[in-house]
Specification:
Largest sheet of chain A: 2 strands, parallel
Strand content of chain A: under 5%
Helix content of chain A: 55-70%
Largest interface: A-B, 80 and 79 residues
Number of strands of chain A: 2
CATH architecture of the domain at 175-260 in chain B: 2-Layer Sandwich
Number of helices of chain B: 8
CATH superfamily of the domain at 175-260 in chain B: TATA-Binding Protein
Structural class of chain A: mainly alpha
Radius of gyration of chain A: 29 Å
CATH topology of the domain at 175-260 in chain B: TATA-Binding Protein
Strand order of the largest sheet of chain A: 1-2
Structural class of chain B: alpha+beta
CATH class of the domain at 175-260 in chain B: Alpha Beta
Order of helices and strands of chain B: HHHHEHEEEEHEHEEEEH
Shape of chain B: elongated
Shape of chain A: extended
Subcellular location (chain B): Nucleus
Strand content of chain B: 15-25%
InterPro entries (chain B): TBP, TBP_CS, TBP_dom_sf, TBP_eukaryotic
Region (Disordered) (chain B): 79-162
Helix content of chain B: 10-25%
Order of helices and strands of chain A: HHHHHHHHHHHHHHHHEHEHHH
Number of helices of chain A: 20
Oligomer: heterodimer
Distance between the termini of chain A: 63 Å
Strand order of the largest sheet of chain B: 2-3-4-5-1-6-10-9-8-7
Keywords (chain B): DNA-binding, Nucleus, Transcription
Family (chain B): Belongs to the TBP family.
Distance between the termini of chain B: 21 Å
Number of strands of chain B: 10
Radius of gyration of chain B: 27 Å
Chain lengths: 403, 343
């Protein structure tokens, strides 16, 4: 005879395992992933801490198992996407994810940025196919496999978290022709810009998605600058039918600053005195020579931001001796002094200078004077006043005054 | 010496794909960890690499554009490598003592990558070489003869001349003590100016004193937690003061079982760190999820300390019961971090 509690656990486990499979199908993952994710869930469920966890945690665990499976197969899937699909709070997801990785002793590879960028564009292909279906049948059969999936999540698979559903790649009444773009060109340029951002410390320690948004925007703008320079990042995201992540504007500014620095190293661009708008027109040139330009435009300072002047002189001499063969400038005219290639957080001045505290001579055994302790105690009068104030407060809250 | 050091640094750098205008000068200082595989598929040191992204994945590095003019002419390519290797200072040896606290074999994946190349899929293994990456091999046919692999000791070198000279500063000490008597928290909250008590929110009195600037949680069982002190002695003095306050309020409080439970320290190595690279080479200990937290969480085994490592080079160390553990943990991590110093 099955104990009621066992039956309860059995049912809830089965339902969660079913949810794992549903989530895999909604995300259109290869079928092999389902079994792996389910196996992880079963393994996790063997731990008492997980068995006794709240329902919300168990639901979030479904997403964790799917995410781990995807990461191990280098299938780019962001935590944000899973949280949106599960209607879960990122904090809860984060805690459960870290816990389960530790519990199962797993080695989870990092999210691969290049694959993430590519996925955006391949999901566009699906969306294009889907929208063709929609137009012809007039029905919401966005995904053939979803039609037979009776899970409530089937309905949640809408464009908003399909990364870039990139309506940019197809003409529509709301999409002017000048904003349409070739998918392959855009993918290639976005990848290059993301790589540039990575090389110049704009990616480490930051959310990956906003960088990709900013890079995609710049890539799109630079492919037809004359028509698109007036389009803002927010408008671009609307056109592309994607959310504008909050840090994307900041990433955009940082990327433009890097491009401007690189532009200063090209003689024909130096004379143009570019700014953050005009540099977009030259992004293709800058990307073509990006490795050289980064090398020339930046230098790392081993001692960080200290004494940059001496650094500059020392390095400058060294570089000239070795010989930068393709320097376009005459020997006398130096390019703009190289900026430090550092993460933006190291380039900003410190918010507050924390001086090292003087060495403490406290032994821990000092005498404690009565007066020092008494300063923290209320006098009898103060106690009475305090009690009176508390009573008054209680009376006020229990019977609220009429407005 | 500085010039030699510079060439050593270049030697360690991964030579990423160069564009068509790449001069036969310095290779780009691409921001990748030095543990990258260094395979050159051209014996011509002046060869220029194709900048195609796909090829970058195939060719993980190259020795092409490094100017080795400082070396004597009669050296062969191999000897060049050996010389460069031998002339490395203790600095490099420290870098190569990968994860000495773990006493585990070096991970086979050494391609720190930009995270843009597939990090750990099985197909990328074919590009990666076992052991240390600083082979500088010119002949890709023998990727296994890595001169440095034999040098890397597994035990940490005593940092005599190569000490970090950075001392982590203690920021917070958490300690507990037992006052060994039942307490009336309402009475304490009434008679003490520096106490707050919200039984609906938390079942303890929160008390604060000005010197040493600390906070205490005092429970009705008589147990107490003291936080905020910057040294062990200060924590003990503060705990004693809280006990005195409770005594003065009329309770027969004693001061028993004082114990430091946790110590937190922080410091700054003053150079940026490639966290993506660090998580690849120290997978067993590291957790880096930029979607969740900007820092890398490094769980050191010996001593058992958790380090939060940020891209700016700031490091937070926590989990110590004794300050020597903090210092030891930092001395262990510093050479590892220095290995990822290159931009």
């Amino acid at each position: 005879m099955v104990q009621p509690m066992c039956l309860f656990f059995l049912i809830s486990t089965l339902s969660c395992l079913r949810r794992v499979r549903d989530l895999c199908r909604v995300l259109q993952l290869p079928s092999t992933f389902e079994d792996t994710a389910v196996a992880y869930y079963q393994k996790a469920y063997q731990h008492p801490g997980i068995r006794a966890a709240r329902v919300q945690k168990k639901e979030v665990l479904v997403g964790c198992c799917v995410l781990i499976t995807c990461r191990q197969h280098n299938w780019p899937l962001t935590m944000g996407t899973i949280c949106t699909l599960l209607y879960a709070d990122l904090d809860m997801f984060s805690g459960t994810y870290m816990q389960i990785v530790k519990l199962l002793g797993l080695d989870v590879p990092s999210l691969c940025l290049a694959d993430l960028v590519k996925t955006y564009c391949s999901s566009i292909r699906r969306k294009l196919a889907a929208s063709k279906l929609e137009c012809s049948q007039g029905a919401r059969t966005a995904c053939p496999s979803l039609a037979d999936c009776s899970s409530p999540w089937a309905l949640r698979h809408d464009p908003h978290f399909d990364y870039f559903s990139f309506k940019l790649f197809q003409a529509s009444p709301s999409m002017p022709a000048k904003f349409m773009e070739d998918k392959e060109k855009m993918l290639s340029r976005t990848l290059q810009l993301v790589e540039l951002a990575d090389e110049t410390w704009l990616v480490t320690g930051r959310h990956p998605l906003p960088v990709i948004t900013a890079a995609a925007f710049l890539a799109w703008q630079s492919l037809q600058p004359s028509a698109r320079l007036t389009c803002s990042l927010a408008r671009f995201c609307k056109l592309a039918n994607v959310d504008l992540p909050y840090p994307a504007s900041s990433r955009l500014q940082e990327l433009l600053a890097v491009l401007l620095r690189m532009a200063e190293q090209l003689a024909w661009l130096q004379v143009l005195k570019l700014d953050k708008r005009s540099v977009v027109k030259h992004i293709s040139d800058l990307l073509q020579h990006r490795h050289t330009l980064i090398r020339k435009a930046f230098r790392e300072g081993p001692s960080g931001v200290e004494a940059p002047a001496e650094e500059l002189w020392g390095r400058g001499q060294g570089q000239e001796e070795v010989g930068n063969g393709s320097s376009d400038l005459p020997k006398g005219k130096r390019p703009a002094s190289p900026a430090l290639l550092l993460p933006p957080c190291m380039l900003k001045p410190p918010k507050r200078v924390c001086p090292t505290p003087p060495a403490s001579t406290v032994t821990g055994d000092e005498d404690i004077s009565d007066s020092e302790i008494e300063q923290y105690l209320r006098t009898p009068q103060e106690v009475r006043d305090f009690q009176r104030a508390q009573a008054a407060k209680r009376a006020a809250t229990s019977s609220p005054n009429p407005p | 010496m500085e010039r030699e050091e510079r060439y050593l640094e270049l030697y360690l750098d991964r030579c990423s794909a160069q564009d068509d205008l790449a001069p036969p000068g310095l290779p780009p200082l691409s921001p990748v960890a030095p543990y990258d595989v260094y395979v050159c598929n051209s014996s011509n040191p002046e060869a220029v690499f194709n900048s195609h992204l796909e090829e970058v994945k195939e060719i993980t590095g190259g020795f092409s554009a490094v100017d080795l003019s400082f070396l004597p002419d009669e050296l062969t390519q191999e000897n060049k490598d050996q010389t460069v290797v031998r002339s490395k200072g203790e600095d490099e040896e420290n870098c190569k003592t990968q994860s000495p606290p773990s006493k585990l074999p070096l991970p086979s994946q050494q391609d720190a990558g930009l995270g843009l190349t597939s990090s750990s899929s099985s197909d990328s293994h074919s590009h990666l070489q076992p052991g240390d990456a600083n082979s500088g091999q010119h002949t890709p046919e023998k990727p296994d003869s890595l001169p440095l692999a034999s040098i890397a000791p597994m035990t940490p070198m005593t940092p005599v001349s190569e000490g970090s000279e950075i001392v982590p500063q203690l920021q917070n000490i958490v300690s507990t003590a037992n006052l060994a008597c039942k307490l009336d928290l309402k009475k304490i909250a009434l008679h003490a100016k520096n106490a707050e008590y919200n039984p609906k929110r938390f079942a303890a009195v929160i008390m604060r004193i000005r010197e040493p600037r600390t906070t205490a949680l005092i429970f009705s069982s008589g147990k107490m937690v003291c936080t905020g002190a910057k040294s062990e002695e200060q924590s003990r003095l503060a705990a004693r003061k809280y006990a005195r306050v409770v005594q003065k309020l009329g309770f027969p409080a004693r001061f028993l079982d004082f114990k430091i439970q946790n110590m937190v320290g922080s410091c700054d190595v003053r150079f940026p760190i490639r966290l993506e690279g660090l998580v690849l080479t120290h997978q067993q200990f590291s957790s880096y999820e930029p979607e969740l937290f900007p820092g890398l969480i490094y769980r050191m085994v010996k001593p058992r300390i958790v380090l939060l490592i940020f891209v700016s080079g700031k490091v937070v160390l926590t989990g110590a019961k004794d300050r020597s553990e903090i210092y030891e943990a930092f001395e262990n991590i510093y050479p590892i971090l220095k290995g990822f110093k290159k931009a």
